[in-house]
Amino acid sequence: MLRISEAGTVNKRVILKLEGRIAGPWVAEMLKACEQFLREHRTLQLDLADVSFLDQIGTAAISSLKLRGVFLENCSPFVTEQLKNT
C-alpha cells in the first residue's frame, strides 16, 4: 500500500509525501499523482522518508521522474541503494 499526500509548497515547489511501498499497482498511482503537477509545469519534490520498499518497476519510475527534474528528499539508505542500481 502507498499513501500519497501533498505536504505543502516551498519556494513554488510542490512536495508530495510518499509512505509505504512503491510497488505493483501503486507505481501507477504515484505516477498519476506526479503527472498532475508535471503537466502544469510545476516543480515537484518527493519526500521518500517513509518509503519502506521499492520493486523494480517502482525504482524505474522514480528514476524516470528524477530524469524529468523531480527532486527527491529524505531517501533512506535502502532507497538510495535501490536507485543507484538503475
The CATH architecture is: 2-Layer Sandwich
CATH topology (fold) name: Transcription Regulator spoIIAA
Roughly what is the average pLDDT, rounded to an integer?
A: 93
Domain unit count: 1
H/E element sequence: EEHEHEH
Rg is 12 Å
Task: Report the count of strand segments.
Answer: 4
Top CATH class = Alpha Beta
Give the tags:
single chain, 86 residues, alpha/beta, Transcription Regulator spoIIAA, four-stranded mixed β-sheet, 3 helices
Give the arrangement of secondary structure elements.
Layout: E1 2-10, E2 13-22, H1 25-39, E3 43-54, H2 56-67, E4 71-73, H3 77-84
Parallel strand pairs: 2-3, 3-4
Antiparallel strand pairs: 1-2
Characterize the structure shown:
- The protein has 86 residues and is α/β, with parallel strands linked by helices.
- The chain has a single domain (2-84), classed as STAS domain (Transcription Regulator spoIIAA), CATH 3.30.750.
- It is built from 3 helices and 4 strands.
- It has helices spanning 25-39, 56-67, 77-84; strands at 2-10, 13-22, 43-54, 71-73.
- The protein has a 4-stranded mixed sheet.
- Strand 1 (2-10) and strand 2 form a beta hairpin.
- Helix 1 runs parallel beside helix 2.
- The longest helix is centred in the middle third of the chain and has 15 residues, at 25-39.
- The protein is globular.
- The relative contact order is 0.20.
